[in-house]
């Protein structure tokens, strides 16, 4: 094989490696996007649960005392 052919073949191997790296980076980014969406859904559910707890608690003053004991008064 001539030097020119070897050099061309190496350039293609290098380009293929760069494409594999870019593909893996895109896969990681896709997972990060999905994880962010899952955290947003989790946060929404926690907010709904908190709102439900406040709305259904029979004595909000007692609930405030419980929260102060758990989180510490500010």
Largest sheet: none
Rg, rounded, reads 28 Å
Output mean pLDDT: 91
Helix content: over 70%
Q: What distance lies between the first and last C-alpha atoms, to the nearest angstrom?
A: 78 Å
Count of helices?
2
Strand portion: under 5%
Cα shape: rod-shaped
Order of helices and strands: HH
- Which structural class should the secondary elements be placed in? mainly alpha
Which stretches are poorly predicted, pLDDT < 50 over at least 5 residues? none
**Overall number of strands:** 0
Count of domains: 1
Q: Could you describe the 3D structure shown?
A:
The chain is rod-shaped. The protein has one domain. It is built from two helices and no strands. Helix content is 89%, strand content 0%. The model has no long low-confidence stretch (mean pLDDT 91). With 74 residues, the chain is mainly alpha-helical.
Keywords:
2 helices; mainly alpha; rod-shaped; single chain
Question: What's a quick, concise take on this entry?
Answer:
The chain has 74 residues and is mainly alpha-helical. It has helices at 3-56, 60-71. The relative contact order is 0.05.
Sequence-ordered SSE layout with sheet pairings:
Layout: H1 3-56, H2 60-71
